[in-house]
Amino acid sequence: MTYSYWLGGAVALALIMPAAAQDAPRKIFRGEVASLDGQTLGVKTKDGQTISVTLTPDWRVRVVVPIGVEAIHTGSFIGTAQVPQADGVGRSLEVHVFPPGVKSGEGERDWDSQKGARMTNGTVTGEVTADAKGRELTLTFPGGSRKIVIPPDVPVVQFNPAQHADIKPGVQVFIVAMGDGSSGWKTNNIAIGQNGAAPPM
Predict the structure, then answer these.
(1) What does 81-95 look like in DSSP terms, one character per residue?
(2) Any bridge partners for residue 90, and if so which?
(3) Domain containing 15: what range?
(4) What angle do CA 158, 74, 3 make, to 5 degrees?
(5) pTM value?
(6) Are 153 and 163 found together in one domain?
(7) How far is CA 145 from CA 15, 71, 107, in A?
(8) Based on the domain organization, do 17 and 46 belong to the same domain?
(9) N or C: which end of the chain has fewer CB within 10 A?
(10) What is the annotated signal peptide range for this record (predicted)?
């Protein structure tokens, strides 16, 4: 796999979205595939609504694959949805590990998976320690850093290439669509879970 597969354009996954695209209007959709008709994807969201997303000509699919937490070490570039605690330490809800050499979306921004959640992408600096509470590390990004605790039961994943044929009714998906709603939504990337699991983002 070449790293160019992960990058380029207004990548739909916010965690690997180029900086210019991150400022564009976007909306996250989580749910299951209701239909796929040419370049039009129907997604049934968790609130029961079915929304329509236009797939760009270069659309791709990635499958979220669990990996061991030991894959995270000093120098790793990772992203994590986390909730800052009273002491400022972020408690992870999920972690995604980028391939070596890939750094995108560095920084911290609001995330919608849980009230008060933030998405933090950065480089692991200093020592990674472990105890009964989980892994503890520091993520550093331009303009700041965040101490992170990864509890033992938190999913740690990476993204692997998948096929268009994997997108079929009933498959659980995670999509970050671009647009403002009035003119429709579009995306060039879809994330799916492995073996029917919902992507944890």
Answers:
(1) EEEE-TTSPEEEEEE
(2) 84, 148
(3) 3-64+158-196
(4) 40
(5) 0.79
(6) no
(7) 17, 20, 8
(8) yes
(9) N
(10) 1-21
- Distance, in Å, from the CA atom of 133 to the CA atom of 201, rounded to the nearest integer, reads 21
Give pLDDT tens digits for 184-198: 899 999 999 988 889
Determine the Cα–Cα distance for residues 124 and 138; give it in Å rounded to an integer. Answer: 6
Long-range own/partner contacts, residues 21-28 (CB < 8 A, 24 or more apart): 21/178, 22/105, 22/109, 24/178, 25/178, 25/179, 25/180, 26/176, 26/177, 26/178, 26/179, 27/176, 27/177, 27/179, 27/181, 27/185, 28/112, 28/174, 28/175, 28/176, 28/177
Question: Does one domain contain both 74 and 132?
Answer: yes
Give the mean model confidence (pLDDT) for residues 171-178.
93
97: its two tokens:
């590990």
Chain segment 41-74, per-residue pLDDT in tens: 999 998 889 999 999 999 999 999 999 999 999 9
